[in-house]
Design goal:
This protein is α+β, with helices and mostly antiparallel strands and about 270 residues long. It contains 6 helices and 19 strands. It folds into 2 domains: about 70 residues, no CATH class; about 190 residues, Fumarylacetoacetate hydrolase, domain 2 (Alpha-Beta Complex), CATH 3.90.850.10. Strands 1, 2, 3, 4, 5, 6, 7, 8, 10, 11, 13 and 16 form a 12-stranded mixed sheet that branches. Strands 15-14-18-19 form a 4-stranded antiparallel sheet, with no helix packed on it. The relative contact order is 0.20. It binds manganese (II) ion. Manganese (II) ion (MN) binds next to loops. The site of manganese (II) ion (MN) has 7 residues, from loops.
Length: about 270
């Protein structure tokens, strides 16, 4: 199943190539603030989906004709792992590694959707880079989750671009500008991804392939990332983990078109402004 947000906070699902607007079936107010409706749905997913099917309130929609929005707008946390592919460490000439340095945070407000442009700040002379990453969405929350239990805490996956200004300032600031975390175009539930440890990720800028790698080369794998993060902080439903970028990062400029695609997950094309 795919879950998505669209047209001003409505929530939809795609099952077997058919898409439905389940907003009214779930009794969701799309204009409610804070916009945590998707987080609440993930937290009570099985019960909520029973409501949808029992009441037969689903409305068919054409997903190509709606405006998709960032599927999770207000997670409790947006965690990210630094150098988590060896070849990216080499290209950055960096001694950092996810297994040594652990995770960092990006501002939740940097999240943006599949139809939002990446808006670059006016910083002459500074390089702003794309990082192509698999995003993990947490389902059942927890603390001190073991490697063995980790996949039971994964709700699903999405494409994620970790945009960053290279330089010396605090990493959190350089990665937290508005629109610096495109995420989507939807969440694919974990049952639809056969082996998340073997997914090809690709990113193009203006049609030129810049990044092309596989999650099998992660230094800290998906169970390891969940175990490490939850040893520090309670993970909550809807939390997002950016799993780190492979090699091939590079600058983006105004006018560029950036495309990210992850097999079995989805793809999105983003304008840079
Ligand atoms: Mn990153």
């Amino acid at each position: 199943m795919k879950l998505f947000r669209f047209d001003g906070g409505r929530i939809g699902i795609t099952i077997a190539d058919h898409s439905y607007d389940i907003t009214d079936a779930l009794g969701i107010d799309p204009s409610a603030w804070p916009p945590v409706q998707m987080v609440q749905l993930i937290a009570n997913f099985e019960r909520q989906m029973r409501n949808v099917t029992e009441h037969q309130k689903t409305r068919t929609i054409d997903i190509a004709k709606v405006r998709l929005e960032v599927p999770i707008e207000w997670p409790n946390k947006l965690l990210a792992y630094p150098v988590n592919y060896a070849k990216h460490g080499l290209e950055m000439n960096s001694a950092n590694r996810a297994d040594l340095n652990g995770f960092f945070l990006k501002a939740n407000s940097s999240l943006s959707g599949p139809n939002d442009a990446i808006v670059l700040p006016d910083l002459p002379g500074r390089e702003i880079h794309h990082e192509c990453e698999l995003g993990i969405v947490i389902g059942p929350g927890g603390r001190n989750i073991s490697r063995e239990d980790a996949y039971r805490h994964v709700f699903g996956y999405a494409c994620l671009v970790d945009v960053v200004i290279r330089g010396k300032e605090e990493r959190v600031m350089r990665k937290s500008y508005d629109t610096f975390c495109p995420f989507g175009p939807w969440i694919v539930t974990a049952d639809e991804v056969a082996d998340p440890g073997n997914l090809q990720l690709r990113l193009w800028v203006n049609g030129e392939l810049r990044q092309n790698a596989n999650t099998r080369d992660l230094i800290v794998d998906i169970p390891g990332m969940i175990a490490l993060a939850s040893a520090v902080a309670t993970l909550h439903p809807g939390d997002i983990i950016a799993t780190g970028t492979p090699e091939g990062v590079g600058p983006i400029r105004r006018g560029d078109k950036l495309r990210i695609a992850i097999e079995q997950v989805g793809e999105m094309t983003l304008d840079v402004r």
